[in-house]
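[job 4471] stage=fold_predict status=RUNNING
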Amino acid sequence: MTNSSRTGRRVFAQRVPYAPTHYQCFDAARLIAESVVGIDPDVTCVIGVASGGIKPARLMADYLKVPFHTVAARHNKSDAPFQQATGDVEVQLANSLPGRLSGTVLLVDDIAGTGATFTAVTDALKDRLDYSAEIMTAALFRNRGCAQTPDRWAWSVDDWVVFPWERPHSGQTQPVPALKWVSAR
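[job 4471] inference complete, writing structure tokens
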């Protein structure tokens, strides 16, 4: 469990949600994967946070030619737009996750809203890390209220995001800006 006061508060301008396309998400995942090629230690696996992080994580794992795994983490009771995160994250490690992790483990989610999910999953994985292993976090989007900024992200936003793999939003949406580079801490 993570306390929300440590992890920030999502920022919502409440204009209309951003709506990236499949292609934009694919391009962002590829650029993030390219940005970690050659880091030391090498990325040895990619872990996607279910459910939103699975598609970008799978793309990154395929691009990097490393194993793909999943973890489940949830802190919102629904996917209703513009809700604040509770800060309390329930993490469930998959049985298929290796007992020991080495090198750089790339932990991927679709959005870093407050940072609570990355913090909770990183804490849950610590017992599985070899002495020299490290976790690098990546998200397609980072909300501007995120206190625990991921190591890599493609867009910073100040509103809700409706992803192409989610149920379509019934109202208006706005496009995301053109992708120019991947941000890193």
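[job 4471] summary: The two ends are 25 Å apart (CA to CA).
[job 4471] exit 0
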